[in-house]
């Protein structure tokens, strides 16, 4: 993992010593790898707006890159002039991603609120293991929410440090709750699926065939989520029935993730209803999943030790994963337009 500050089109490697970011002396040497985790390193940088994402297509493209950069450059905010423009940042990301190609990269970008300096934390990215998508994950809840959910402020990484220690072992993510309501994940958005046993009004849309848009790299993703493609067709081990299904997810009090926008759009396209409210910890639901830019759609099979639905990966979650994989193939942006 490497860290840089960006000044116009110049990438300047930095190291953090005694909690202070300092320019690395490049005389005859390469930038020093940081031993910290991204969160640890972020806590030592100046507080500011940040965003995190990974590349795809061999380090050449990112889903929703424009939306990620808009988090750092909000049009309504009066703050110090940034040390680099969005176009400068795209060029720097392209250069850093090329050093890891054909592998993928994961980036965290931060714009200091005090002086506008733009920082880049870069590391090689290995996609989550296929078992996560095939078997699902266990999550726990914490009585914690963001102070300002509309801004991705790095101060929250420090404020939530204690709750973040719960992640590890079998615990994949921490859900942020208040008064028994689930708002989002610590580093993700959260959804439940309520499915009825019968059809309620109107014709159910056909099961869409997204396979033609999926390349070899996309097919690898589909295999990780339990979907196979043969002769241009796909199948799941547990295909959804023609039942009505509704996604329930909070709309206020949460950080509106870039991947969340895509998933809600895809869910509507698959004929699912959307209900905007925070799910309650004690309510019953058929499926649950989380989304993030680096992980995509991750099935949840238990919350605080209580099984979700039948305790396995749900058919609707697999169906959305298929649509999402096709969308990533079609709509990811080039690092440099």
Structure commentary:
There is one protein chain. With 337 residues, the protein is an alpha+beta fold. The chain has two domains: 2-125, D-amino Acid Aminotransferase, Chain A, domain 1 (2-Layer Sandwich); 130-331, D-amino Acid Aminotransferase, subunit A, domain 2 (D-amino Acid Aminotransferase, Chain A, domain 2, Alpha-Beta Barrel), CATH 3.20.10.10. It contains nine helices and 19 strands. The protein has helices at 38-44, 65-72, 86-100, 130-135, 155-159, 161-164, 216-224, 258-269, 315-331; strands at residues 2-7, 10-17, 20-23, 48-54, 61-62, 104-112, 118-125, 137-143, 171-178, 181-185, 189-195, 227-230, 233-236, 245-249, 273-276, 287-292, 296-303, 306-307, 333-334. The strands form four sheets. Strands 8, 9, 10, 11, 14, 15, 16, 17 and 18 form a nine-stranded mixed sheet that branches. A six-stranded antiparallel sheet has the order 3-2-1-7-6-4, sandwiched between helices. Strands 5-19 form a two-stranded antiparallel ribbon. Strand 14 (245-249), helix 8 and strand 15 (273-276) form a beta-alpha-beta unit. It is globular and about 55 Å long. It starts with a strand and ends with a strand.
